[in-house]
Write a sequence for this structure.
């Protein structure tokens, strides 16, 4: 009887666990169904940079000023805030673009630009803090097209380069009405490069055949495993030259002051030299530009964060929980 009693308790516990798991899975499935239409939507965060600057200033004053002077500083700050509330000031929308080879940040950029254009007025300004060493042509072409949307609406566009805007990064930057760059920021690299290894001789050495079938003579010009021909190499080089010409024409159309024969060699320059070549309009950091602008404008940093699928969010939370344990 003791055996059957213990066995019954075991079955009861097992059944309880199974039911609990079914309830959890059912809840997740129901939640997924209810929120399925929202999973592809993200979150738009708006940060008022003026408040950040005021907060930093007051914090520093609180640590360094006597109580009487601090009280006066707070009083003056409140007076300025009231004056700002009564006076319509111009606005500056600040976007951040950190590019990789695939320009993955363009997914957020397109949403941020759309959001800004729903509210921007002709007197407003958009500033993009841009950091990218370039990547895929079509991806950065789309990113540049997103910035063109701002110019097409007659809204002033400023691009700030604190570190690097090269190749595809400069393809984006050149769209701006004004480019500011830090003294040692890298700009330029107006060129196109493509490279790939070829394993054909290695395959032949081991008696491995590689067959490729095409419809269209130049569907594939060069290949990783087949034997490349001079005709294929020539065609591939021709395609690279065409892309380079498109790159140069695009840059020239937005910055006609450039000597393309001088700057479209694929070379890059640091800020001071980039200014000499007219790749930039002013040597200045984005921080300095924004701080000065905050005196006469309301600054809003706009950030779009894409929403992850529920499974990815679940795994993220699980990893965080494991990291804390």
């Amino acid at each position: 009887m003791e055996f059957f009693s213990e066995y019954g308790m075991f079955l009861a516990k097992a059944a309880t666990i199974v039911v609990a798991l079914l309830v959890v899975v059912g809840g997740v499935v129901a939640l997924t169904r209810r929120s399925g239409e929202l999973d592809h939507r993200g979150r738009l965060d708006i940060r008022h940079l003026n408040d950040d600057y005021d907060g930093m200033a007051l914090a520093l004053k609180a640590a360094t000023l006597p109580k009487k002077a601090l009280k006066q500083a707070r009083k003056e700050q409140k007076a300025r805030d009231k004056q700002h509330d009564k006076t319509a000031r111009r606005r500056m929308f600040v976007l951040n673009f950190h590019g990789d080879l695939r320009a993955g940040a363009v997914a957020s950029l397109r949403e941020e630009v759309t959001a800004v254009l729903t509210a921007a007025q002709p007197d407003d300004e958009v500033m993009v803090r841009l950091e990218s060493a370039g990547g895929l042509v079509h991806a950065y072409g789309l990113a540049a097209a997103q910035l063109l949307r701002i110019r097409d609406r007659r809204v002033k566009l400023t691009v700030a380069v604190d570190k690097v805007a090269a190749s595809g990064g400069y393809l984006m930057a050149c769209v701006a009405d004004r480019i500011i760059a830090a003294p040692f920021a890298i700009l330029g690299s107006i060129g196109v490069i493509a490279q790939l290894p070829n394993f054909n001789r290695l395959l032949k050495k081991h008696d491995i055949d590689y067959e490729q079938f095409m419809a269209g003579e130049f569907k594939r010009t060069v290949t990783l495993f087949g034997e490349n021909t001079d005709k294929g190499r020539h065609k591939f080089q021709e395609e690279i030259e065409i892309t380079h010409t498109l790159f140069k024409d695009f840059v020239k159309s937005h910055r006609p002051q450039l000597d393309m024969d001088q700057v479209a060699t694929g070379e890059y320059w640091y800020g001071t030299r980039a200014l000499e070549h007219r790749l930039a309009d002013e040597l200045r950091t984005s921080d300095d530009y924004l701080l000065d602008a905050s005196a006469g404008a309301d600054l809003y940093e706009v950030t779009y964060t894409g929403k992850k699928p529920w499974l990815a969010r679940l795994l993220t939370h699980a990893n965080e929980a494991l990291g804390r344990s």
Observations:
- The mean pLDDT is 87.
